[in-house]
Structures are given as C-alpha cells and as structure tokens.
Automatic annotation (TrEMBL):
Segments passing through the bilayer: 76-99, 138-160, 172-194, 200-218, 225-242, 262-281, 720-740, 746-771, 811-829, 844-861, 866-886, 908-925
The EC number(s) this enzyme carries: 4.6.1.1
Organism name: Orchesella dallaii
InterPro entries registered for this protein in UniProt: A/G_cyclase (IPR001054), AC_N (IPR032628), Nucleotide_cyclase (IPR029787)
Region named Disordered: 335-367, 564-593
Name of protein: adenylate cyclase
UniProt keywords, alphabetically: ATP-binding, Lyase, Magnesium, Membrane, Metal-binding, Nucleotide-binding, Transmembrane, Transmembrane helix
Key word Membrane present: yes
EC class (word): lyase
UniProt KW Transmembrane helix keyword: yes
Reaction(s) this enzyme catalyzes, per UniProt: ATP = 3',5'-cyclic AMP + diphosphate
Primary localization class, coarse: membrane
Family annotation (PANTHER family): ADENYLATE CYCLASE TYPE 1, ADENYLATE CYCLASE TYPE 2
Domain of life: Eukaryota
Length: 1229
C-alpha cells in the first residue's frame, strides 16, 4: 500500500482547523474539540437553586437519589467502622486508668477521704475501686460498639437499601435507630451519674450533631434538621434540669452554661445544614459532570458510528483506515506545533495567517516536499472483475421527467443498484452521469468475483426493466465485464473520490461501449473465472471496438433470460418493485422539463496508466431550462446506510442509554473500605479501581500531573466557606462573651481583628458572583460586561482569581483556620490565679470554642485533607499544651468531665478525648469526601479521555467526510433526525469548469502497473493536489470530481458554510438563495446576470491559478504539461444520488457546454461561449474571439478565449484594474 504524503495530509488538517473560512465544518473542528474539553466556570452553575432546577427539568431526581444514596451509604459505613474503633479505644482508656493507672496514683486523693476536710465533689470516697465509676460508660460504649458492628454487617453490601419500594424507609429507620443508639445511652448516662454519683457529665451532643448531618443516610435534608434539633433539644433540656437541680452551681452559672450550650448546639446545627447544602451542591455538580461526559461520549460515539457508516459506504475500509490514521497523526502534530507556539508566546494571528496562505507557487511555505512527487493512498489488487453498466436511451427519460423527478429517479435507481451490488459482493466505485461501475474482489478476495459481476449485471437488467415498464420508455442496460489486476486509491487532498486505475479498467469500459442492450458482455479472461453453469451460457461474439481489436480481446455475451437466477427478484427486499414517478402529464414543452441532452457526459475517459484512456462517451447528461428551486421528496432507500425513521429510533435509543449507563456506573462505584484498601490491589483491571491511581493512605495520585490538575481545579464554593468561617467566629465570640469577663482585652482585640479581616475578605470572594447575577439574572448573556467602577472591577477580578487559584485559596484558608483556632484558646492566657479565677471556673467554654474551630477547619471542603489534618493537629497540640502545662490548674477545676476519669484525678484528659473524638469524626468524614472527590476526578478523567478520543475520531471522520461531500450535504446525511429523503436543488446562476491535461498519458508508455502505473498516478496526484490547494484561496469554488486527468469544479452552488460573506454572496439575489434543503416547491429561481458574472469571473481566476501551479510543477520536474479549460454558466441541477453511497453531482446544459468548451479547446487556453465572454467583458476581462467552431450537440458556435499573459494572469481592459488584480493574484499565492 502506497501512502499519501504526510505533507498533504498535514496541509489538509491544518487548513481544516485554521480560522480560514473555507470549509467551515472542517474549520470548526479543533475549536469544537477544544471547547468540549475546556470548562468555562460560571459560579451560578454551582448554585443550589440552579442545580435543583436543572435536575427537575431533566427529570434526574430519581437517578440522583440513587447516586446520593450510594455516597451517603459510604459515609454511613465509614461512621460505623469509626464508631466501633472509637468506642473500643475509649473502653480501653477507661480500663487503663481505672485498673492499671489507678494503682500508680499518688495516695493524696485517698488521704483526703480519711481527713477531716472538705473533699472535692469529683473525688468519690464511697467506691471501693475507680472501675465502678467507669463501668457505666464502659457498658454504654460497649452497647454502641455492638450495635454499630451489627449494623455494619447489615448495610455493608447495601442490598438492604436497594429493596424496592421500601429502600428509603429502611434508610430513615436505620438513621433514626443509629441516632437513638448514641443519643439515648448518652442522655441516660448523664442522668445515671447525676442520680447515683451526683456528678453532671458533659454529654456527646456535638458528636451526635456531626453524626446526624455528616454520616446518616437520610434522604432529605429536613429530616436531618429535625433529628439534629431534636437531639440538641433533648440534651439542652437534660442539661438545664440537671444544672437546676445541682447545688454546686449558682443560678447564674447554670443559666450561663445552658445558654452557652444552646449557642454551641445551634452553631453546630447551622454548620451542619450549611455542610449538607455544600455537599449536595458538590454531589449534584459531580453527578451532572459525570452524566454530561457520559452523554457527550455516547453522542460522540453515535456520531462516530454514523460517520464511519457513511465513510464505509464511500471508501473501502482499508483506504479509510489508513487515511484516518494519517489525519489523526497530522492533527496531533498540528496540536503539538500549536502548543509549542503558544509556549513561545507567538501570535496566533501570525500562525493562522500562515496557514491560510496558499501553499503553492513560489511562496509555498506551508507544505514542503521532500521529493518531486507525493506518495499516494494506492493499493494493487490482483484477480478482480470490473463491471461497467450504462443506461441505454437515457435521453427520452430526461425529456419525460422534470429535473427533480429525474434526480429522484436516478437516486432510486442507483440505490437499487447499490443494494444489488451489496447482495453480490461488489463494491461500487463511481457514478459518471448515467454510467455505473463497480468491482468484485476489491476488499475481500474471492474466486467468485467474475460470477458476482455477471449476476449483478443480470439484476441490473431486471431492475431497469421495471423502470422501462413503469415509464413506457425504451431504456435498457448495456454491461461490460473484464477481469484482471487494477490499482485503487485516492488522488488529491480535497474532494476525495475513490477510483480504480489501469489498463484492465479501460478494457472493461470498452466492453460496455461495444456491448448490446439487455446483455452482459464479458471477455475471455472473465469467462475463465466463471463457474461451469455461467460459462456454458457465454456465446462468442465479434467486437467492433478498435481498442479491443488492437489488444486481441476475445468477447462473449450472456443473456439474462438464459440465467437460472432470472426468476428471482434482483434484490432480496420486500420493496424490490420500485415505484417510480408518474409522468403522464409531462412533455418536452414543459418549462420544468429537461430538454437538452446534447452534450457528452463530462468524462474524457477513465485514466489508464498504460498509455491509453477510455474513449469519450456519447451524449447523455442532463440539461434543463427551469425547475423548482428546492426539492426534497421521499425516496425508497433499499439497504441504505441511513434508514430514515429507523435511524431516528436508533439515535433516541442511544441517547436513552445515558441514564442506564450512569446507573451502572453508580452501582460500580468502589465506595466501600474494602474496595479502597483491597479492591484495587486485587483487581487492577477494574474500571473504577481507585487504588490503581491513588495511594490509599496519603490519598494522593501516583501521577504528579494528575495531582496538580486535581489540586488546581477551581472552587466556586470558596465564598461560602468564608461566610461560614465568619459565622462560626461570631459564635465563638458569643461563647467567650458568656464565659469570660469584659476586661480581657486580648480576646476582644483578636475577635475584632478576625471579624474585620473576614468582613474585608467577603467582597473579594463574593463580588464576582453577585455582579454576574445582577447583570445576567436569566443567563442570557454569553459575555458578562465588566464593572466600570475601578473598585468594583478590582473586587470582580479578585473573586475570579481567588476562585480559580489553588494557591490563593490555600493561603487564605491557612490564615482563617489558624486565626480562629488561636482565638478559641487565647483567653485561657488571661485566666490567672487571682480574683478572676471565678470567671474561669468552667473550662468547657474553651473546649467548645476549640471544637467549633476544628469544625471550621473541616468546613472548607475543597482544601487538601492533609493540610486540614496538620492544622487540626497543631490546634489540638496547642490546646493540649495549654491544658497540661500552661493552665493546668484552670482545667483541674473542671466540672462535667468523664466520671471514670474525674474519679481518679484525670479529668483534664476528658477535654482532650472530647476534642480528639470530634477531630477523628471530622477527619474520617473529610477523608471519605476526599476519596469520593478523587474518585469523581478519576471517573471524569477517564470519561474525558474517552470523550477526547471520541471527539478526535469524530473530528477525523468529519474532516474526511467533509473532504468528500460538501458541508451541507454531509450534514444532511449525518443528521440523526433525517427521514431518508433525497436531496436536489436547481441553481440559475452557477458557473461550471472542466480542466484537463491533454495527452497526459502519452508521457507514460509502459503498461507495467507495479512501476510506471504508480508513477503516473504519483504525477497526477501531485497535480491534483496543487489544484486542490488552490481551492483554499478561492472560497466560492467547489470541487465536483476528478475523472482521469480532468478536473471539474463549480462556483455558486453555495453548499459550504464559509463563516463569512463571500464575493458572490454579497450580490442581492432576492429569493434565489434559500438557506435550507427542505422542500420549497413554491420558490422559483431567477436569472441574475450580476451573480453569473461574479461566479464566472471567480471560476476563470481559479482556472488561471491552476495553470500557474501546473507551470510551477513543470519547472520543478522538467515536464511540459498543459491545461485545457472550458467554462460555462447558467442553470445547473445539483443533488445527491445513490442511497448506500451518496455522491454529490451536477447536471444541466451548462455542465454539458462547459465539457464541450474544454474538449474543443486548446492547451493553456480558457474557452468560453459568446454569452460568457459578454459577461466577463462587464468585469473588464479581455476575451479574444476564436471563431465559429462545431460543438457536438450544439452545432456551430462562436467561442472566445480568455486572454492571459505569459504568467497566466488574466488581462483586463484597464491597466489600473489589471494591476490591482495582479497584486491580489500574487497575494493569494
């Protein structure tokens, strides 16, 4: 397999993705792919209200509940494990201090019991051993431990929650049971110690609040709020009653303590509600991102399947695969080059302008050739059979049918031929007017290639018989078949059409021309490959074709009536009887009928790289004087790659898979601890295994780039964290107001400084969101206008920078966390021995404050959990140092610690254990949140990679498809909602050009395909590639096809989305242009001389450019090729024919006349008719009269040559105009 040069592929990819307006569908590929991967952050997309509305509109609540349930269950599982561990540790601590450490205590406490002194209330003289004080707590925590262990076994596999329809009820029941498992023993323990030991114990109410809001799998937030308030109320009532009954507290002290607890619990509940809201926003956003990527990937994969089906119908697999690989490589090189340029801070405009320039001529810097000729996508095939089929007497059919009906009939007819070709393992190559040719054995070698072609020919004859009977027109099929070796592949870099080349192709074409209607004409070589039954049907015949006689080709005829297959339907389909249009009312006088078929099919011959070419074919192209402007009628599409409504259904089914895929992805989330620590190691291939990517201990990614990407994600919720920190600081301030005297100046100074700092910070994190909300409340603006006020603009930009900068957020978090932690314990410094000691006699105020500070530390959800751990450890260490060393005597005055510790003189440990428990719960919660966030990141990253791969494949396919079909036509055939209709359109103001290289094959005389045949294609490919590159400088010119060494193009078809106004689109044309392909039967086109002049002038300039490029090739290679050009303008019918293999083509008298102008022209000349010359003269183009010549199908005509100078520049009437055009010409090159 020979390859197309990377230079040409790279040029195609670069121009496809540059900002040049040419071929807009290709132009937008890279931008589209990049826009899919770039996340444009909008804070409003992270608002709770917006997300709730989106979920309601998209009907995603049920699926979200499933996702939320799994995540909440993971938190619940983690809590159960943690509670089992914490309860076990606390029991061991109590046993240690009660049984072991008690024996080592100094006896001074027990000496007090025998002395005649007042014994501190927390020292119990009426117990034989300290273990009896700890025993109630040991039993209580033992009950909690066993209960949590049993529940963990029940909920580990999550099957209990998935039992429909009672899953939610089970969730609520288990949540309430867990809450009461902790709440009731805790309250009961406090009552027990007060009643039997006369000690008021500090309950674990704050831990219960954390449990309710952070761990319980409650489906609704209001349920958590009710449970949290209920728990807090129970603890407050219990504490109020006990303090009221206790004689050790004054009434003021009791009220202050209960009020402090009220503030403490309310703050905990408020932060719990806030955390639930933030957690819901994060979870909903992650859910939407996941589902969005899944939806986009499925959509891209569907589009990719559609594109690959279309590609498979146009190009053989072996060709399209190789081309796509080269395109993928070229796009990758282009992106790498662009990245390097951006890294060097080079201007994109400079780069784009370079890409937009013409790569040909002396200023060609875009493509550098390492050798004179580019390589090809060409493959050699041995032992294949080529079938050519032509519709005989096609002219009467064109007279009976209007233009739209004719295109529709051709579409249906060729669709039937395509279905028959597929049935007989034949590959259609190309349509040339009413000629159809195909090959058997091209993609998959088969010994039955000759039989396949013969049977395919029989089916074609049967199909045309249906048309003949339906239309009462004497039409038939003439078929020729030859077998041998050929070359196949693509030429050029734009407007690719798969074709075959070689001497055997020429022989097959001549076999068709010398055949007989209704019969299959085969050569001796083909007969030798036929089976016995078909071979016996062959009847020798004497061919009168000169080319066949010169090559001593023996020929035979097969008649379908003799075929055993004749009694079968030609296409195995229930719709094989093709209903065609009724034509009874149409005649040759109808203004919408096609009346001229006088010009030859615009084919000079299919190139034979052995020194010959297919002889010119007779007259059979379509012409017309007027048709409906826009046609789109229903078509029968047997075996079509697009099945109309079935494709719509398939598309909807594909989109319906999104939720199902999301559902399975949710169920596969490895959220259990076994999955975290063991699942990844046991199953490294598991698609969601996080251990493959993340260290399970440190929770960091193995890849540094992934870790950096994860940490540098923007955090739109940071503004809420700052607001929460300010609220908690105020709550701590209220606690301190209750606890300490007003003369403690350091406390008030730190509080004022902290509040001032946070109040100043609030605008710096909130203005961006507020400004966006004010300016675009309904989300209607693509770009939010910047504030005009300098201060507001500063705050606006600061908000965006803080949101998007990990470093800024981390620094602010560190300052806020350390400030609040310091403020929580700073007042202990001023609790000195002296008159103020009475005001410091309840150190639990400081413990509460420190607990709230720890809560703030963990309320910044998107900060790395290790940093939170470090800050928490630092805060606990500072608090512990204060407790044990700096102000130990303050905490020895404790009332309310654990009786099991207080009874043995270690009440100070109660404060540390209390805070350690809170820190452990929050750390476990935060660690689980970090794990889920990283799991989401891995999932999103994997989906992003899949989406990127699908997008790249989609981009490659789209470039390839739009390189074969015009943009609008490609869109029609890739539209999932299309209904299987054919497409045609009539234009009144289109110019058509044929440009051929006369006697191109005279340069090659050897018929050795493996050597000179490929060299001939190599040279032709270089020439066609240069012509294709010229298209990128002539925006309105559309390449139609290449037939041999003949290049066909048109101007004015308007099938491209250019992205900006072109020269011809500037002309006022009223209703001539309808930007749609839908049926517009009532719209009639009108002749517009100005637009005809513009299209004609544009096409002539393109032809001159082609001549200049060919001259450049001659200079580089030493060859002497010349271009012969014919141009015409007028009415043209353009449309798509072929159902399995859509082909865009044009028909009309203007097409025929352009073909005749070229075939009767002269080398290095552009020949036009007198009408075209008059139009060009209005554009100041000089034309010289050639004279009166005979044109087949037209008779004698006066024609003109467009005057060119020695440099192939168009000559104009006015010198200044000519100089301007010359400058533009050089600039384009």
């Amino acid at each position: 397999m020979e390859r197309l040069s990377v230079d040409n592929i790279s040029f195609l990819a670069r121009n496809s993705m540059s900002l040049s307006p040419k071929r807009a569908s290709q132009v937008s590929l890279l931008a589209e792919a990049q826009s899919d991967s770039v996340h444009h952050l909008d804070d409003r997309n992270w608002s709770w209200e917006y997300l709730r509305n989106r979920f309601r509109i998209d009907d995603l609540e049920e699926l979200y509940d499933r996702y939320f349930l799994r995540i909440q269950n993971s938190y619940f599982n983690v809590y159960l494990v943690m509670q089992v561990i914490l309860s076990a540790l606390y029991i061991m601590i109590l046993l240690y201090f009660s049984l072991v450490h008690d024996n080592l205590l100094d006896t001074k406490y027990y000496e007090l019991c025998g002395a005649n002194v007042t014994v501190p209330k927390h020292i119990r003289c009426d117990v034989e051993h300290a273990v009896y004080l700890a025993l109630p707590e040991i039993i209580t925590h033992g009950i909690i431990l066993i209960s949590c262990a049993i529940m963990y076994l029940l909920v580990y596999n999550e099957t209990l929650f998935r039992r429909e329809p009672h899953g939610r009820k089970i969730q609520i029941a288990l949540s309430v049971f867990t809450c009461f498992t902790v709440l009731l023993p805790d309250v009961g323990l406090s009552i027990f110690y007060y009643v039997y030991i006369d000690v008021i114990r500090t309950p674990l109410a704050f831990q219960t609040i954390i449990l309710i809001y952070f761990f319980l799998p409650l489906p609704k937030k209001y349920q958590a709020v009710i449970l949290g308030l209920f728990s807090s109320t129970v603890h407050l009532i219990t504490s109020g009653i006990l303090h009221k009954l206790d004689g050790g507290y004054t009434e003021g002290d009791a009220v202050r303590r209960v009020f402090a607890e009220l503030i403490f619990y309310l703050c905990g509940n408020a932060v719990g509600v806030y955390s639930q809201l933030m957690n819901e926003v994060t979870i909903r956003r992650a859910f939407m991102d996941r589902r969005g990527y899944i939806k986009s990937t499925i959509k891209k994969n569907y589009e990719k399947d559609q594109e690959e089906q279309l590609l498979a119908s146009i190009l053989p697999d072996h060709i399209s695969t190789l081309v796509k690989e080269e395109l993928r490589s070229a796009i990758g090189e282009y992106e790498e080059e662009s990245a390097k340029q951006q890294a060097r801070k080079r201007s994109n405009v400079s780069d784009i302008s370079t890409l937009g320039r013409s790569p040909g001529g002396p200023q060609n810097h875009g493509v550098k050739h390492k050798k004179p000729f580019s390589e090809l996508f060409i493959e050699r095939h041995e032992n294949v059979s080529i079938i050519f089929a032509d519709i005989v007497n096609f002219t009467p059919l064109t007279v009976k049918l209007r233009a739209d009906e004719l295109v529709e009939t051709l579409n249906e007819l060729f669709g039937k031929f395509d279905a028959a070709a597929t049935k007989h393992n034949c590959t259609r190559i190309k349509l040339l007017g009413d000629c159809y040719y195909a090959v058997s054995g091209l993609q998959n070698q088969t010994p039955d290639h000759a039989s396949n072609c013969v049977l395919f020919g029989f089916d074609m004859i049967e199909i045309i018989k249906e048309v003949r009977d339906a239309l009462k027109v004497d039409i038939n099929m003439r078929i020729g078949i030859h077998s041998g070796n050929i070359l196949s592949g693509l030429l050029g870099i734009y407007g690719w059409q798969f074709d075959i080349y070689g001497k055997n192709v020429t022989i097959s074409n001549h076999m068709e021309q010398s055949g007989q209607p209704g019969k299959v004409h085969v050569t001796k070589q083909t007969k030798e490959f036929l089976g016995t039954e078909l071979a016996n049907m062959c009847k020798p015949t004497k061919s009168k074709d000169k080319y066949l006689e010169e090559n001593s080709i023996e020929t035979f005829l097969l008649t379908p009536a003799m075929s055993p297959q004749n009694c079968q339907s030609p296409v195995s389909s229930p719709t094989s009887k093709m209903p065609l249009h009724s034509v009874g009312s149409h005649d040759g006088e109808d203004e919408d009928s096609l009346t001229d078929l006088g010009a030859p099919r615009y084919v000079r011959g299919i190139t034979n790289f052995s020194g010959s070419a297919i002889t010119p074919r007779r007259n059979n192209s379509i012409a017309g004087t007027g048709t409906a402007d826009l046609i789109r009628k229903k078509s029968i599409r047997v075996g079509s790659f697009v099945a109309g409504s079935s494709d719509v259904l398939r598309y909807r089914e594909m989109m319906g898979q999104v939720n199902e895929t999301m559902k399975h992805a949710i169920d596969d989330m490895p959220l259990r601890k076994f999955d975290v620590y063991c699942g990844g190691r046991k199953d490294h291939e598991h698609k969601n295994s996080i251990n493959v990517h993340v260290n399970p201990i440190l929770m960091n990614f193995d890849e540094l780039t992934s870790e950096i990407h994860y940490q540098t994600q923007p955090d739109p919720l940071f503004k809420y964290y700052v607001g929460c920190a300010l609220f908690v600081l105020l709550c701590i301030g209220i606690l301190q107001v209750i606890a300490v005297p007003q003369q403690h100046s350091i406390l008030w100074f730190i509080l004022a400084a902290g509040c001032t700092f946070l109040l100043i910070l609030i605008p710096f994190v909130w203005v961006g969101y507020l400004w966006t909300q004010i300016k675009d409340p309904h989300r209607e603006l693509d770009v939010i206008p910047l504030p005009q006020n300098r201060l507001v603009r500063l705050l606006f930009h600061s908000s965006n920078r803080i949101t998007g900068s990990c470093l800024r957020r981390t620094l602010l978090y560190f300052v806020i966390a350390m400030l609040i932690s310091f403020f929580a314990i700073i007042d202990v410094i001023e609790c000195d021995t002296g008159s103020e000691m009475d005001d410091c006699k309840s150190p639990w105020y400081y413990t509460y404050s420190c607990a709230l500070a720890i809560l703030v530390t963990y309320s910044f959800f998107r900060i790395h959990f290790l940093l939170k751990v470090i800050i928490c450890i630092v805060a606990l260490a500072g608090y512990s140092l204060t407790i044990f060393f700096y102000r130990k005597y303050v905490f020895e005055l404790n009332r309310g610690g654990s009786p099991g510790l207080s009874g043995v003189g270690h009440d100070v440990f109660s404060h540390v254990i209390y805070l350690l428990g809170i820190g452990a719960m929050l750390h476990v919660m935060d660690r689980q949140m970090e794990y889920i966030n990283r799991l989401d990141f891995i999932w999103k990253k994997r989906l992003t990679e899949e989406h990127k791969e699908a997008t790249l494949t989609h981009a490659v396919n789209t470039v390839l498809i739009h390189n074969i079909l015009p943009t609008q036509i490609a869109k029609i055939y890739l539209d999932p909602n299309r209904t299987g209709e054919s497409h045609s359109r009539t234009y009144q103001n289109v110019s058509v050009m044929f440009a051929s290289i006369p006697k191109f094959m005279d340069f090659f005389s050897d018929d050795d395909l493996s050597r000179n045949g490929i060299r001939g294609l190599d040279v032709l490919n270089q020439i066609i590639s240069e012509f294709d590159k010229a298209l990128f400088n002539h925006l309105d010119v559309e390449k139609i096809k290449v037939i041999g060494s003949t290049y066909m193009a048109a101007c004015g078809l308007e099938v491209q989305e250019t992205g900006r106004l072109s020269a011809t689109s500037m002309i006022p044309v009223d209703s001539e242009y309808i930007p749609s392909w839908k049926n517009q039967d009532g719209v009639r086109t009108s002749v517009n001389p100005i637009k005809r002049q513009k299209t004609l002038h544009t096409l002539v300039k393109f032809a001159a450019d082609m001549m200049l490029r060919l001259q450049s090739i001659n200079s580089d290679t030493g060859l002497d090729f010349q271009l012969r050009v014919g141009v015409s303008t007028g009415l043209v019918v353009a449309g798509v024919v072929g159902s399995q293999k859509p082909l865009y083509d044009t028909w009309g008298d203007s097409v025929n006349l352009a073909s005749r102008m070229e075939s009767n022209g002269s080398p290095n000349k552009i020949q036009v008719s007198a009408y075209c010359a008059s139009l060009l003269s209005q554009a100041h183009v000089r034309c010289e009269q050639r004279g009166n010549i005979f044109v087949k199908g037209k008779g004698n005509m006066i024609t003109y040559y467009v005057m060119l100078d020695d440099s192939f520049r168009i000559m104009y009437d006015y010198e200044e105009f000519e100089e301007s055009e010359a400058e533009n010409h050089c600039t384009d090159l």
